[in-house]
Amino acid sequence: MGEQRLVWSGEAQEYEGFTTWGSPVAIGEAGGVGAKASDLLPLSLAACTAYDVVVILRKQRQDLRALEVVTTTDQAPDPPWAFTGIHQHFVLTGAIDDRKAARAIELSESKYCAVAASLRSTVTLSHSHEIVPI
Looking at the whole model, is its pTM more than 0.90? Predict the structure, then answer.
């Protein structure tokens, strides 16, 4: 079990979050300092799935040199602007078997990622990938 903290700076809408390990995360309003709070949800999904993909591909001895995940989101048009869809596009760089990359992403999203498991009943999750050879 983890514990996270959020502390308001006392100024406008500026906050500092602290992860389970005590690392700071700046959070703020649009145009301010830090991440927009609603950006943290798709970023959490991207980080969670990326972690799994790296672990899986390394175990399969794939030559993964870089990984970037670009998320695009759909939200309801009215408050509270709930997320309705999150698409993740994985850009993998290296000598990687396409089928192994696809399977690693699928396993992460459907089986291992806690964030995906938490979202899947209310948000449509999708993904795509491309491999950039070295």
Answer: yes
